[in-house]
Known about the structure:
Layout: H1 29-34, H2 37-55, H3 62-87, H4 95-112, H5 117-142, H6 146-158
Helix pairs in contact: 4-5, 4-6, 5-6
Amino acid sequence: MSQQAQPAVSTPPAPGPKEKDGRTAQRPLALRVLARPDVGVFLGAVAVYVFFLVAAPPVREASSMANILYQSSTIGIMALPVALLMIGGEFDLSAGVAVITSALTAAMLSYQLTLNVWVGVIVALVVSLAIGFLNGWLVVKTGLPSFLITLGSFLILQG
Length: 159
């Protein structure tokens, strides 16, 4: 009988810090911040702001900045909800016409019916909410693409 050498029993290594592979490696903070899409937009806005501060000295005045912010607000108020819809995968073609319908409702109630301006504003808000509710309800109940529903609303409101 020959005795064969038995392999030595190896003991598992002592638990230590986990090895990190490429998938779970922690990226530096600067790369994580720059990878966010909102940071790129912010840096672009800062670059445009700095460009106009240098190129157009009247932009440095407070009255000019108030005018710029006022004009930006009229675009931003519409851009935010439309952007949120697009992020959600939907599309609203009737947004511009709904704004005009709301403004016309407020103006007609205030001027032609000689009601208080605030009554016109409140009724215009209710009309806008009704348009949005109807569009959303039709998209959910019919299952049609929001593009078609809001195109129909666009044509109805335009008429």
